[in-house]
Amino acid sequence: MTFSELGLAPEIARAVLEKGYEAPTPIQAGTIPGVLSGKDLIGCAQTGTGKTAAFTLPILHRLRAGTRGRLRALILTPTRELALQVTESLKAYGRHVRLSTAAVYGGVGHQPQEAQIRRGVDILVATPGRLLDHMGRGYVDFRGLEVLVLDEADRMLDMGFIRDVRRIVAALPARRQTLMFSATMPDEIRKLSREILRDPVNVEVAPRRSAPAAGVRQTLLPVDTSRKRELMAHLLETEARGLTLVFTRTKHGANKLARHLEGRGHAVALLHGNRSQSQRTQALAAFKGKRARVMVATDIAGRGIDVDGIAHVVNYDLPNVPEDYVHRIGRTARAGATGDALSLVSPEDHPHVRGIETLIGAKIERRVVQGFAETKAAARPIGQGAPAWARPVSGHSRPKGAGAHPRHMGASASARPMGSGGPARQPAPVARPAFSTASAPPAGGSGSTSRGSHAWRGRGFRRH
Questions:
Q1: pLDDT digits (tens, 9 = 90+) for 216-255
Q2: Residue 150 lies in a domain
Q3: pTM more than 0.90
Q4: Which residue range forms the structural domain that includes residue 229?
Q5: Which of 184, 256, 299, 443 could form a disulfide with 251 if both were Cys (CB 3.0 to 4.6 A apart)?
Q6: Which residues are paired to 219 by β-bridges?
Q7: CATH (domain of 296)
Q8: Does the residue 460 lie in any domain?
């Protein structure tokens, strides 16, 4: 089957071919005809299956004729990075049709976004918090809206955006087509779909099992949330001595962790959505050149970092989406090499662990670092023992008499396995790079307003 056979206009099918795509993916083949028919739709498929094109292509087809410069389609996404990705797709697939597209998200100034909206756009891609902020200022006109898309709906739920989504939907015309795309369908998302969709078509593509590279040694390290930073520094000072890429879930968390590690004497590069392009370029250059042995990053780097010789990937925070875990740890063990993926897991992370293990089809080894075991486990009834997820996994042999499972990190022949005796070696003094995180902008950007009668104001700044 080709994209033309799905019923797309020739100019749109041509743009898809120019991007190098000849045949639709299963989620695209299943959803595009339904969207073109004008029906509401729920599309459920894992990340990386082509969901973005599944709704951008039929939207471009529908809007290619009609009044221009009036807001006719709204696409809600959970993060700034995804909003930019969707916007780029719309521009690439719509290169042969004259439709204007704008993206609004937090972390940057209002004025350029306001100016675009006031000039008139056909398609608006937005994160919920920042869109509510623009709506509160009174210049977003939804009267001509024809299509609403909720992209990565389950991720919006994880990030606490569902209340914001409901407020936005309440301001939209009742006569519209609504499309919801999600990797999973938790109960709260099913409830939302019943509220805002009318007799939807349901298209579900079975999740693909995604296996990390064979050379990646994966380990979960249980620890209380309050001691994560301390454990992270301990890892860098004992065994993670090669190039180390550390992932956090938020920009604010990345800033705090980078400052803490710098305070412990580590040269740290910082990469997240609030960094300017020059700061990002400088950070990557320092990491590649090994002037900064540690890079702290959010998922903006999960698919974009291609640096040879990364010995360790550390999930300081587990990702909300299981497939992001596979993309993250794929930064090590490249080109047939071996590497270590360590995940710091606190009690609230246990549901994420289950999702990751389901995706990769395997249990991940658990290992307790001496001095950093979860203290909350002590509150369990006597005899109940450690939670099942933290017990040793069968099939992982240990040397007789060993405590913590030994790991050979490969960075240094003298590196101690975690949990072994003896004092931790102190890191050699290192020069901090010129782009010290001390000058990093606060998470979410400036301009956040206080929470008053408009409780949602400013949320676009604090979130993605």
A1: 999 999 999 999 999 999 999 999 889 999 999 988 999 9
A2: yes
A3: no
A4: 216-438
A5: 443
A6: 342, 365
A7: 3.40.50.300
A8: no
